Amino acid sequence: MSLKHDMTGVYLPGDSTAVLRELAVPEPGPGQVLIEVGASGICGSDIGYIYHEHKGHRGVDGPAYRGVVAGHEPSGRIVATGPGCRRFGSGDRVIVYHIAGCGLCDNCRRGYFISCTSPQRESYGWQRDGGHAHYLLAEESTCVPLPDELSYVDGALIACGFGTAYEGLRRIGVNGDGDLLVVGLGPVGLAAGMIGKGMGARRVVGVEVSPQRREWADGLGVFDATLAPEPDAEATAGLVADALGAPGALTAIDCSGSRAGRSTAIAGADEWGRVSLVGEGGTLETEVSDSLLHKQLTLYASWVTSLPAMAELAGNLARWGLRPEHVVSDRFPLAEADEAYQLAAGASKGKVVLLPSEEPGS
């Protein structure tokens, strides 16, 4: 096929704007593929650490944004391959795992490119061009097959938020033996609720401050109840217990990244419960004896997921008949990236995605 020579990409100057620039369509080198981007999600970490201000993922001492094309949640179709590619070819539909690691360290060899500490480690949309463009140059090693049953929007959501939620739920072993409490119903929390249902949780209860987000979550048909938190975590845990008809949830996951949210997840867990922390930022503050020791709780901390687990998740979602795109509340063409980021940074009900192949008004 004949490819365009130029394309549009979205950049984040760090002043709460998203700007469009023209750049050349790259050519794949050894072990690389060129992807026509079908969908690219806007992540909360991009909002907090790049869109508003130039900081790295863990603050000023973390890996900094290098002024590249933004977007680390891409999915699309391979249109060209470089020398040495063996797993994928032109026409293949893929999800892009958003970190390119060194490939040699223990974490990389386990598939956890996110935890690679080599200077060679690069994140799409942070240190190398990401998915907010018509085309993306990716390492073949970071590509995950996208099942035919799933859309490009589904794939974009799996690339980060759904993968993060899945890893957190895998750590705590969500299954049909107990209920699941999800604290924070942003995109990752919505993903946790959907995946929790797929993994067999008996009942799924969500806690969220925003009435708008609770209403959106209710419309997904995933949560058995969505609750507004009380000022005190123990009081909120009482609401959770009432909703479940049980002392608490066997498994709980905090997706809020807030001190109050983490306290709620711990308070809402039943004896011998398992609590997963996946929300970035903030602090953890808890009373130890009654809240942790006497309840025999186990706490897990989880950062994104592995490449094999992401592939496993994509297959599971197709098998379960679940569509991540249902948590998307707003879709924008690439030309309206600034409006998309304003909404994602403000009052969006659910997930916001960019569709590079669509034109304004289509």
TrEMBL record:
CDD domains: THR_DH_like (cd08239). Residues 14-354 form the Enoyl reductase (ER) domain. PROSITE patterns: ADH_ZINC. The keyword Ion transport does not apply. InterPro entries: ADH-like_C (IPR013149), ADH-like_N (IPR013154), ADH_Zn_CS (IPR002328), ER (IPR020843), GroES-like_sf (IPR011032), NAD(P)-bd_dom_sf (IPR036291), Zn_alcohol_dh (IPR050129). Its cofactor is Zn(2+). Gene3D superfamilies: Medium-chain alcohol dehydrogenases, catalytic domain, NAD(P)-binding Rossmann-like Domain. Keywords: Metal-binding, Oxidoreductase, Zinc. SUPFAM superfamilies: GroES-like (SSF50129), NAD(P)-binding Rossmann-fold domains (SSF51735). GO terms for molecular function: oxidoreductase activity; zinc ion binding. Belongs to the zinc-containing alcohol dehydrogenase family. PANTHER family: L-THREONINE 3-DEHYDROGENASE. This is Alcohol dehydrogenase.
